[in-house]
Amino acid sequence: MAVTAGSEPPVEAGTGQLLAHLRSVLPGLAGALRQVGNAILEDPAWASRATIVELGERSGTSPATVTRFCRSLGLGGYTELRVGIATDIGRADQAGWELGIGADVLPTDPLDRVLRTLLAVDLQGIHETAAGLDLRVVATVVDALVTARRVDLYGVGHSAAVLEDVQMRMHRIGIASWTWSDVHAGLMSAAMLGPGDVAIALSHSGRATETVDMLAQAKASGATTVAITNFSTSPIAEVAEHLLCTSVRETSYRSGEMSARHSQFLVLDLLYLAVAQRTHERATETWARAADAVATHRMPYEPRGRRGAEGAS
After folding, report:
1. Are 24 and 230 in contact (CB under 8 A)?
2. Residues ≥6 apart with Cβ < 8 Å to 209
3. pLDDT band per the 50, 70, 90 thresholds, residue 100
4. I need a surface site. Which of 39, 84, 105, 276 has the fewest CB within 10 A?
């Protein structure tokens, strides 16, 4: 999902994105509304068939609370909620992945099932992330990157590792960019930004205080600010002008940050390739210069058969 921060769009029944949207906003919902959301995510198939009274009972709330929950998602009523859930289930069945949020790896699972589960969970996250992206917002961010004097990338932990990859690629096509994971260094860099610069923050939870602080400083300095997170109501969304949301779920043995990597790379790769398209001539030239600079540090390719033949003689 990609939106301009502060302007969360209502989800539409039948788009196949209701459950992804719900996971994104769930942490920001009030207690009773969150209980309804948790009940739906625990068993979406049941929720698609349940009456409003049954959902209220299972969530420990009431039909009135369920109605408020529907409105909090931008839905007209309970019927639209059930249609949205059913549409998501249909998409999941057609794609061949498990819809349940608990799709996971058990200690006794054979290796082939571990592989299938891993593939299903990651593919679902990638597909749902792609389906939720607003390409108009992506294009706005690309416009800013193409003309930026410099680009700061903020993230800690797993996020920092993801950003190091995209920073190297951006730098290689002529986009002056730096990755900051130390909050002190990042704050100093953010303080030196200004109008025309871009700051991108990556945080799966959207609650990493260091990352939020760095992006807030960049915004105060006048830079264009972008946040990439899994939760559209998280604190980092409050300090970003533009919000790009992934749609992934946690599994045991893999934290949310680890599960999110492929979807995060999808969003970042899209930005990178779009920038490379827009700056094709410059990108091609700088890419070639960079390749030439490291060419002498690569061993020449030598087929195995040839090396073996020479050794035998």
Report:
1. yes
2. none
3. very low
4. 105
Position 30 scores a pLDDT of 86
pLDDT tens string 212-252: 999 999 999 999 999 999 998 899 999 999 999 998 876 65
User: Are 204 and 257 contacting, i.e. CB atoms less than 8 angstroms apart?
Assistant: yes
pLDDT band (50, 70, 90) for residue 132: confident
Report the candidate in 25, 11, 251 with the shortest Cα–Cα distance to residue 124. Answer: 251
| 239 within 8 A of 217, measured Cβ to Cβ | no
The residue whose two tokens read 């589960």 is: 117
**Cα R_g (the chain), whole angstroms:** 23
For residues 192 and 122, the model is more confident at 192
Q: State how far the alpha carbon of 22 is from the alpha carbons of 12, 19, 41, 81, 196, in Å.
A: 12, 5, 8, 11, 34
Instruction: Mark residue 205 as left, alpha or beta (left: phi above 0; alpha: psi -120 to 50; beta: remaining).
Output: alpha
Give yes or no for a contact between 148 and 196, defined as CB atoms under 8 angstroms apart.
Answer: yes
d(CA 181, CA 156): 5
Global model pTM greater than 0.85: no
What does the block give as tokens for 55?
A: 């959902």
CA distance 163 to 155: 7
